[in-house]
Design goal:
This protein is an alpha/beta fold and 347 residues long. It has a single domain, classed as L-arginine/glycine Amidinotransferase, Chain A (5-stranded Propeller), CATH 3.75.10.10. 29% of the residues lie in helices and 25% in strands. A 4-stranded mixed sheet has the order 1-5-6-7, with helices on one face. The chain has a 4-stranded mixed sheet with strand order 4-3-2-17.
């Protein structure tokens, strides 16, 4: 008989605003990957970890003893536990496991998937084993069970409301560089069986120069039941002007798994954000992390930072919304949601 799926076993992926037991991150360590900006990137990650650790435990991967000493000093009084687990880069949303919660029992499980470096673009040593190594630790430490899957799925490619609806993009999940033998129907079935969802809402394209081929967590996020936030351009020279308008229009036609029309909340786009080489970066205010009692959102030094901060704060009236600079992290292709991996509370 085929192995039982997470859905058949009674598991589902809860919304990110549900209580967390911990947040998994990796501490930036590779000089060559950050092109002279490693220290600045580390400082942005330190600020993020400090903001998260006030509300929930942090499980932090460290590459070596020197990095462990740096982290120990930076987080001396905070609930940050270090793990000497090797990794290639810090994108824990994608290289870490995906967690699901049992519908009727106080337990969670981890899901692991195949890893191919975002379509064979960035195959770094150790990244393919991070999910398995984190899972092995959790099996020994907390008795968490694991469901292993042979197909490619990155955590940043999916967004759920915890009520049966999953948002994703065709550009990513139907890209032939991920699972060429699986069509839209097979992918949809896979998402339903692994995440315990009932309905898949497909968007088409992601942001310009997005290394991930259109991850959903930079273009559309659930912020409450039946409610999704998306970015809207404020200037015609926004590099994603057409794509963002298309996304907003498309979301306005969708209903969730309950049949309720989605309430679409526009968040201003940061506009044209360039790196030191004048290349356009995939900057998104939606790449925020929902922590216990807080939302930590990325800022980029854009003229829209404060307006976006107010707009996202309005989405989370019961949480403290904090804006932190993330432009150095963005040099690697993402921001706060991309480098965090939340572990739901068992209770």
């Amino acid at each position: 008989m085929p192995p039982i799926s997470p859905r058949q076993a009674g598991f589902y992926m809860p919304a990110e605003w549900m209580p967390h037991q911990a947040c998994w991150l990796a501490f930036p360590s590779h000089e060559d990957l950050w092109e002279g900006a490693l220290t600045a990137t580390q400082q942005e990650v330190i600020s993020l970890v400090r903001a998260i650790a006030v509300t929930e435990a942090v499980e932090l991967l460290v590459l070596n003893d020197a990095i462990a000493d740096l982290a120990t000093h930076a987080f001396a009084t905070l609930p940050v536990r270090l793990h000497h687990i090797p990794f290639g880069d810090i994108w824990m949303r994608d290289i870490g496991p995906i967690f699901v919660h049992h519908r009727t029992e106080h337990r969670i499980a981890s899901l692991t998937f195949a890893w191919n470096g975002w379509g064979h673009k960035y195959l770094l040593d150790h990244d393919a084993l991070v999910s398995e190594r984190v899972t092995n630790f959790l099996q020994e430490d907390q008795g968490i069970e694991t469901f292993r899957h042979p197909w490619v799925l990155e955590g940043g490619a999916i967004e759920v409301d915890g009520m049966g609806t999953c948002l994703t993009t065709r550009q990513c999940l139907l890209n032939p560089n991920r699972n060429p033998a699986m069509g839209e129907g097979a992918i949809a079935t896979g998402l339903m069986e692994t995440l315990g969802v009932e309905k898949i809402l497909w968007l088409d394209q992601g942001l310009k120069n997005d290394h991930t081929d259109g991850h959903i967590d930079t273009i559309a996020r659930f912020v409450a039941p039946h409610t999704v936030a998306c970015m809207t351009p404020t200037r015609s020279d926004d590099p994603n002007y057409r794509v963002l308008n298309d996304i907003q229009q498309q979301l306005a036609t969708y209903t969730d798994a309950s049949g309720t029309p989605l309430k679409v909340v526009p968040i201003p786009s940061p506009g044209m954000i360039r790196d030191a080489a004048e290349e356009i970066m995939p900057a998104s205010y939606l790449n925020f992390y929902i922590a216990n009692g807080r939302v930590i959102m990325p800022l980029y030094g854009s003229e829209m930072d404060e307006e976006a901060l107010r707009a996202i704060a309005a989405c989370f009236p019961d949480r403290q919304v904090i804006g932190l600079m993330a432009k150095h992290i963005l040099r690697g292709g993402g921001a706060f949601h991309c480098i965090t991996c939340h572990q739901p509370m068992m209770g």
